[in-house]
């Protein structure tokens, strides 16, 4: 019995010692919480640093990849897709034209009445959410859903829209995913992005899928132009401003398009474009360089994504991912620095629960007690009564991630300007250059937008910078698609 009692005593003593050690470590962890959180924050800031010298290296790398992508198919991570748009709208187009803009978790349908005098007499649009299950289901179900909503929209066409006698309705289809364009009105899907994943559609003509769905839904309409959202934004911007030479989308995803000299496209083997120019869809979201300031959070997000190893640039700068990167940083701080107390909030472990609009709202919080930050933490993560120092840390992380994204986007634009010779004074001349911008991230995330604009001016310098403007083109991709449907109408 004595031995047994002694054994129990020894075990009990060991358990007490272990418990005491755990308590001591816990107390030490709590006492060092702020220091540890500060260390994590400092490390994040260092790894996300984007000094001008690094941004210029990134822009140079972008330009090199642009040359390679124009030289041959597969020559670069940048697809540099030929859009077959070699004549942008002139302003002389007339009639009623439709657009369908599919490029994220919502799609838009739009109609415009063109007067032939470089103006849009009237326009109407509707926005429809796509159920998440359709984004990963099958092609027929997705396109039937889209065509059914388009049918409802066409049925509501008012008398102020005058379809010219004897004409079939025509549509510009903005499909904002990587597509190998075969002509102005056909193209095969290369891969999905932005959370879509319908594998059987890869390699298939997206216009055929839409046309078949419209026929099933009783919609009598011809797809006159298949365009990427950036190509549509470029067309929409050029319609009202002849200085527009490029377009950038910063929304759920990100991409860029620009006007290139036909002679600078070695892989183009078709007839010479009438204008001597061709719009190139860069698919810049897939850009990657050793100079990009990637962190552990980026690498893990990428490895756990639907498309690991792809769209690295997009995952660092676009609206779909900024909030998720913020969540991952907060989770690390909760786990390693007890940022939100002894227990890690369960919802903090849910991927993509924090959207970029919530991040933007927290970043823009100017109240003394950061009340917006507190309410967002409560609404999204069920984190109640986060103290002010914690809220300040959240805002600082927002600033670090938004600043990195915006400055990288500016470096990308600089790469385009370098490729087209608009980044410096040449022969004593500085051309006025306008980049049409579209997307909710650019439009609504004010801190992001201002940082991007200021960074581009910083990189260009005062002399050139004052000749380069970024202009918001609200729904530019949809209007641009309708305009391209008009300029490529079967009746022209």
TrEMBL record:
<dbReference type="GO" id="GO:0006006">
    <property type="term" value="P:glucose metabolic process"/>
</dbReference>
<dbReference type="GO" id="GO:0001678">
    <property type="term" value="P:intracellular glucose homeostasis"/>
</dbReference>
<feature type="transmembrane region" description="Helical">
    <location>
        <begin position="6"/>
        <end position="24"/>
    </location>
</feature>
<keyword id="KW-0067">ATP-binding</keyword>
<dbReference type="GO" id="GO:0005829">
    <property type="term" value="C:cytosol"/>
</dbReference>
<keyword id="KW-0418">Kinase</keyword>
<dbReference type="GO" id="GO:0004340">
    <property type="term" value="F:glucokinase activity"/>
</dbReference>
<feature type="domain" description="Hexokinase N-terminal">
    <location>
        <begin position="41"/>
        <end position="239"/>
    </location>
</feature>
<keyword id="KW-0812">Transmembrane</keyword>
<comment type="pathway">
    <text>Carbohydrate degradation; glycolysis; D-glyceraldehyde 3-phosphate and glycerone phosphate from D-glucose: step 1/4.</text>
</comment>
<dbReference type="InterPro" id="IPR043129">
    <property type="entry name" value="ATPase_NBD"/>
</dbReference>
<dbReference type="InterPro" id="IPR001312">
    <property type="entry name" value="Hexokinase"/>
</dbReference>
<protein>
    <recommendedName>
        <fullName>Phosphotransferase</fullName>
        <ecNumber>2.7.1.-</ecNumber>
    </recommendedName>
</protein>
<dbReference type="InterPro" id="IPR022672">
    <property type="entry name" value="Hexokinase_N"/>
</dbReference>
<dbReference type="GO" id="GO:0005739">
    <property type="term" value="C:mitochondrion"/>
</dbReference>
<keyword id="KW-1133">Transmembrane helix</keyword>
<dbReference type="GO" id="GO:0006096">
    <property type="term" value="P:glycolytic process"/>
</dbReference>
<dbReference type="GO" id="GO:0008865">
    <property type="term" value="F:fructokinase activity"/>
</dbReference>
<comment type="similarity">
    <text>Belongs to the hexokinase family.</text>
</comment>
<dbReference type="InterPro" id="IPR019807">
    <property type="entry name" value="Hexokinase_BS"/>
</dbReference>
<keyword id="KW-0472">Membrane</keyword>
<comment type="pathway">
    <text>Carbohydrate metabolism; hexose metabolism.</text>
</comment>
<dbReference type="Pfam" id="PF03727">
    <property type="entry name" value="Hexokinase_2"/>
</dbReference>
<dbReference type="Pfam" id="PF00349">
    <property type="entry name" value="Hexokinase_1"/>
</dbReference>
<feature type="domain" description="Hexokinase C-terminal">
    <location>
        <begin position="246"/>
        <end position="486"/>
    </location>
</feature>
<dbReference type="GO" id="GO:0005524">
    <property type="term" value="F:ATP binding"/>
</dbReference>
<dbReference type="GO" id="GO:0005536">
    <property type="term" value="F:D-glucose binding"/>
</dbReference>
<keyword id="KW-0547">Nucleotide-binding</keyword>
<keyword id="KW-0324">Glycolysis</keyword>
<keyword id="KW-0808">Transferase</keyword>
<dbReference type="InterPro" id="IPR022673">
    <property type="entry name" value="Hexokinase_C"/>
</dbReference>
């Amino acid at each position: 019995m004595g031995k047994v009692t002694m054994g129990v005593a020894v075990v009990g003593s060991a358990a007490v010692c272990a418990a005491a050690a755990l308590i001591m470590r816990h107390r030490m962890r709590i006492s060092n919480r702020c220091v540890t959180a500060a260390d994590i924050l400092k490390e994040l800031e260092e790894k996300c640093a984007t000094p001008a010298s690094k941004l210029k290296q990134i822009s140079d790398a972008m330009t090199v990849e642009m040359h390679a992508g124009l030289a041959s198919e597969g020559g670069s991570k940048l697809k540099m897709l030929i859009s077959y748009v070699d004549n942008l709208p002139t302003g002389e187009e007339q009639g009623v034209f439709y657009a369908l803009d599919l490029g994220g978790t919502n799609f838009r349908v739009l109609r415009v009445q063109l007067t032939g005098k470089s103006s849009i007499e009237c326009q109407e649009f509707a926005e429809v959410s796509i159920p998440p299950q359709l984004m990963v289901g099958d092609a027929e179900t997705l396109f039937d859903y889209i065509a059914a909503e388009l049918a409802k929209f066409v049925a509501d066409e008012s008398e102020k829209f005058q379809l010219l006698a004897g004409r079939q309705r025509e549509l510009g289809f903005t499909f904002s995913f990587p597509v190998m364009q075969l002509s102005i009105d056909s193209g095969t899907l290369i891969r999905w992005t932005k959370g879509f994943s319908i594998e059987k559609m890869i390699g298939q003509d997206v216009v055929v899928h839409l046309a078949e769905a419209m026929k099933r839904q009783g919609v009598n309409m011809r797809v006159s132009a298949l365009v990427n959202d950036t190509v549509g934004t470029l067309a929409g911007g050029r319609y009202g401003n002849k200085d527009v030479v490029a377009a950038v989308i910063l929304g759920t995803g990100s991409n860029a398009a620009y006007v290139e000299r036909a002679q600078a496209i070695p892989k183009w083997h078709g007839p010479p474009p009438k204008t001597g120019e061709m719009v190139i869809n860069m698919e810049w979201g897939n850009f990657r360089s050793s100079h990009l300031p990637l962190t552990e959070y980026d690498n893990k997000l990428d490895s756990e994504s639907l498309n690991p190893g792809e769209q690295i640039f997009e995952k660092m700068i676009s609206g779909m991912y900024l909030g998720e990167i913020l969540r991952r940083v907060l989770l690390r701080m909760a786990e390693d620095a007890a940022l939100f107390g002894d227990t890690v909030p369960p919802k903090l472990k849910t991927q993509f629960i924090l959207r970029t609009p919530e991040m933007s709202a927290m970043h823009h919080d100017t109240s003394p007690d950061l009340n917006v930050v507190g309410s967002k933490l409560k609404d999204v993560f069920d984190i109640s009564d986060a103290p002010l120092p914690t809220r300040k840390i959240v805002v600082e992380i927002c600033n670090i991630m938004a600043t990195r994204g915006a400055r990288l986007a500016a470096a990308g634009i600089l790469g385009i300007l370098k490729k087209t010779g608009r980044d410096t004074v040449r022969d004593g001349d500085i051309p006025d250059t306008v980049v049409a911008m579209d997307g909710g991230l650019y439009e609504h995330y004010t801190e992001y937008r201002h940082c991007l604009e200021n960074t581009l001016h910083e990189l260009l310098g005062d002399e050139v910078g004052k000749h380069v403007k970024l202009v918001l083109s609200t729904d530019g991709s949809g209007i641009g698609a309708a305009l391209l449907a008009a300029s490529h109408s079967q009746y022209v």
